[in-house]
Amino acid sequence: MSLADPPAGERAPVPAPAGGAGAADKTGAAGAARAALAAARAARAADLDRRLAALLTSGPAQEAGGGRAPEGAALVAVGSHARRELTPGGDLDLVLLHRGRADVAEIADRVWYPLWDSGVRLDHSVRTVHEARTVARGDMKAALGLLSARRIAGDHTLVDELRAAVLTDWRADAAARLPELSAMCRERWETQGELAFLLEPDIKEAHGGLRDVHVMHAVAASWVASAPDGRVRAAHDLLLDARHALHEVTGRSADRLVLQEQEAVARLLGLPDAGVLQRSIVEAARTITYAGSNLWRRVDRLTRARSVHPAPLPAAGQGRRRGIERRPVGDGAVEHEGEVVLARNADLGDPCLVLRVAAAAAQAGLPLAPATVARLAEHAGLPPVPWPAGARDALISLLGAGPAAIAVWEALDQAGLIVRLLPDWEHVRNRPQHNPVHRFTVDRHLVETAAGAAALTREVARPDLLLIGALLHDIGKGRPGDHSAAGAAAVRDIAGRLGLPEDDVRVLETLVRHHLLLPDTATRRDIDDPVTVQTVTAAVSAVPGREREVLDLLAALAIADGNATGPAAWTTWKAGLVAELVRRAAAALSGGTPPPPPVLDPAHLALARHDGAAVRVAGSRITIAAPDRPGLLWRAAGVLALHRLAVRTARTISAPHPPPHAARTPAPPARSTGETAVLDFTAVPDYGTPPDPAGLEADLRRMLAGRLDVADRLERRARSVRVRRGVTVPPPRVMILEDASRTATVIEVRAHDRPGLLWRIGQTLGACGLQIRAAQVDTLGAEAVDVFYVVDDGGRPLGDSTALHAVRVRILEALS
């Protein structure tokens, strides 16, 4: 019998930790199977301890002394046996500790040789306390092992001295050792990959594996962070059981869970099949990875602070309080020590709060503080069905942040908030993709696709539908039948719950149903065959009047989907074929329907007749009617920006015939056009409470009377704002929509929304000598799609291509 095997009959079951990843498997067959594996490890550890202690006391001198261990010597376990986690293929790592005994070599031979003869995989060393301490200070792996040192037999005092010395050095040197440990982990992650997204992962060494939990305990030993919580420990136990089962199945020490072994490992764990095993491992790995990212963020922050202000690192829970700055980043959210936390006045009953805080964090390029996520999960309300517009806008803003949204989404997912917001997410959550072309699980692929689509929002007229379509395009996976058809049926229900209008629901349904249409058709059909193009145009015609819009959305989704899948899924060759197919399909369509100019409704006309210059502030709705003159739109938008209001929508139009009974106001600073302009805004606070309506109305009236210098006040405010590098957003895009109007030049601006955006665009148009006859402004999440109908001083559209190009360049310069 091997020394590593417990005697028969000693495998009494022991309870495994409950809760966290894999907790649902702790009942029934799976629970019994895992309990048996845990009991086997415990029995193995106890038996090894007895046998190793007997080897240390087996010498002649010890036999004469009644079997006591040699004086001034101790046998110490490090690594997995020290933690009582030794699996069948694991290495036994031992240290023979002594006080300078001259016969230590003889003692070592009595211990090591029987182990070698039994076939145990042994890593061993012989050290004094001073030697072990010196090695630990110079060798990271040795230090990590000694931090978990456990006495098996021999001198208690000697082992206590070693542990105390190693811990003292580890804590004293934490400012230097922890960055070294971080670099070592990142190098390992680069080599081994991320456990959650590998079809054949190394359970121990991959990112999110067992090694990472051992490292977390080492960091906790430095007092810089807390020890892993119950969820992480449960995730660790699941991976440990899987490693144990793998060693039992293969009879080898390898830790890579290859595909052909997964069914047998699943059976040994009492799980139905390899698919359930894979999802359990994915969940456990993501739990560990998320906890590790929070831990390393804290370590990095504290070690950077230590490099600037030399002082002992604060213990876990003892942040630096002096000079801490809380900077608002959104409504209900502030930045605190490099993380986003709830503002003191945040309303936990607000059904939009969760998504709005998440969007603010992503747009700022900052992580959500773990305590904030936990508080939101426990106390915050969720949007009713159908979602209010604020919740939908926050979701779009979150997705529109691009790669910065991924970590924020993961934080919400770890807290269970995503499946509460989108119940259909449960079908794809942690679901592996068995096609090796895919880099990620289904749910992570969807988030990666949405993050990639954020870079393409300038290419489509409806960035909000692109982002939602990217997030949901594979939502049908995990359901019976073709995933595109199943997803189209599911997205119709999801889009309805999100509160989207029926026409937009049909667009999303078409996107999901045909998200593979362009790449599949371009690579499998002859593009020169007219039927090929007809196949595409027929599909996009499912939403009459929006054919070109749907085609552009499908083209952008194909790019984002291909890039998120992996390098083999989106090559230059495939991209070229798809682009050519889209070009030909676009040529076959009529060109789409240009945005119609806004029209006055009866309420606007009634306000326009009210004294010729009227201002109405009703909640988030601000309406102005005044004699039209150049600069009216952007000056009004500037006043809203001064009051920290973000324009969500704006509709402006000049009435061709002013109301006959309108009283004349004092002469404005700029000449009137002889028409009445109606400006209708929907604006919400950037953060905090809305401005005083009376004060806002008074400033708007002062602007109309020419007594408020909007430009000067905005410039002074801009200079006082601290600029922070946030997320990377695609550059703005300015397009001249030819043939969209016979009476005006139509300019469309697509850009990332920011304070004063509309003011800046309008000011630039005015500086170009253009008058805005009508405007249609929409902010979709964090993306602005603004359409302006402009004329020159003579009231005519611009016909000179050189002048049009100059206008486009100047707008881009103003927004850069």
- Oligomeric assembly: single chain
Provide a count of the helices: 30
Low-confidence stretches: 1-25, 657-672
CATH fold name of the largest domain: cca-adding enzyme, domain 2
Domain module count:
4
General shape: elongated
Report the end-to-end length measured between terminal Cα atoms: 75 Å
Briefly, what CATH class of the largest domain?
A: Mainly Alpha
> Which CATH-level-2 architecture of the largest domain?
Orthogonal Bundle
Give the overall pLDDT as a whole number. 88
Number of strands: 15
CA-based gyration radius: 33 Å
Strand order of the largest sheet: 8-9-11-10-14-15-13-12
Give a short account of the largest sheet.
Answer: 8 strands, antiparallel
Strand content: 5-15%
Helix content: 40-55%
Word description of this protein:
This protein has 816 residues and is α+β, with helices and mostly antiparallel strands. The protein folds into four domains: 23-172, Beta Polymerase, domain 2; 175-308, Four Helix Bundle (Hemerythrin (Met), subunit A) (Up-down Bundle); 326-588, Orthogonal Bundle (cca-adding enzyme, domain 2), CATH 1.10.3090; 602-815, no CATH class. 49% of the residues lie in helices and 12% in strands. It is built from 30 helices and 15 strands. It has an eight-stranded antiparallel β-sheet with strand order 8-9-11-10-14-15-13-12, with helices on both faces. Strands 3-2-1-4 form a four-stranded mixed β-sheet, with helices on both faces. A hairpin with an 8-residue loop joins strand 12 (733-736) and strand 13. It is elongated, with a radius of gyration of 33 Å.
